[in-house]
Amino acid sequence: MANALRFLIVDDFSTMRRIVRNLLKESGFPDADEAEDGVAALHKLRSSKFDFVVTDINMPNMNGFQLLAEIKQDDKLKHLPVLMVTAEARKEDIVAAAQGGAAGYIVKPFTKATLEEKVNLILKKLGM
Asked: pTM of the full predicted structure?
């Protein structure tokens, strides 16, 4: 059941994490945890079970691309879909996200409909 999925929201701004969390909840995905950067996210991913990662790209300590690379290199995590979120719609970022194995990419600010559509599209593609 899609609604039983557990999300990890990674963003250095707590307000943005809260917004994404609320949008996911409104979209029928109430189970979410948060991390303030890639380092904290990786720790949570390795110590708990998650089904989906929504991560910002620009963060201190470990950015979204570095986190994506770590996830894809880890045999226990590489199956996780990663949705990249950024404030900048730079073509090279979109290409880098795709080449790095990201499941999708959205640009801030985005609506509930955009997030819901992307998440459902990714889940459908993965047969979840």
From this structure: 0.95
Indicate the residue type of 29: F
Instruction: Count Cα atoms within 13 angstroms, Cβ side, for 40.
Output: 14
Res 1 pLDDT > 50? no
DSSP 8-state class, residue 3? G
Task: Provide the 8-state DSSP code for 8.
Answer: E
Question: Do residues 7 and 32 make contact, with C-beta atoms less than 8 angstroms apart?
Answer: yes
59-84 pLDDT, tens digit each: 999 999 999 999 999 999 999 999 99
Q: How confident is the model at residue 2 (pLDDT cuts 50, 70, 90)?
A: low
3-state secondary structure of 30: coil
Please give the single-letter amino acid code of residue 90: R
Count Cβ atoms within 10 A of the Cβ of residue 102 and give its class: 0-12 exposed, 13-18 middle, 19 or more buried: buried
**Amino acid identity for residue 4 in this structure:** A
Average pLDDT over residues 12-41: 97
Dist CA 36 CA 9 (whole Å): 8
